[in-house]
Design goal:
By secondary structure, this protein is mostly helical. The chain has helices at residues 2-25, 30-56, 62-92. The chain starts with a helix and ends with a helix.
């Protein structure tokens, strides 16, 4: 259940980044692409912190926690990458 909540948190963070990007940057694809570029490293750090907590406090080994880290990071990151691809395609085409 914790993993699902963390992944949902990633989607919330992506949504917040996109909203702030639209609000600050105005219309068009460029501000949203910039927001995704901000989201990806933020999410990588957040997923890493989640992994650290799993290792340091929950008692899992790095070997046990790393596949969870990959899944937690990959869910929202793949959606962000697909959105980035679509926005770049729309901007260029």
């Amino acid at each position: 259940m914790h993993t699902v909540l963390v992944i949902l948190g990633g989607f919330v963070l992506l949504g917040l980044c996109l909203l702030i990007g639209r609000r600050v940057g105005g219309p068009g694809a460029a501000p949203l692409i910039r927001a995704i570029k901000v989201f990806l490293p933020l999410w990588l750090v957040a997923a890493g912190i989640n992994m650290y907590i799993g290792v340091a406090h929950a008692g899992y080994s790095v070997t046990e926690e790393f596949p969870i880290f990959l899944g937690v990071f990959a869910g929202p990151a793949v959606v962000a990458d697909l959105l980035w691809w679509r926005l770049a395609k729309r901007r260029n085409g």
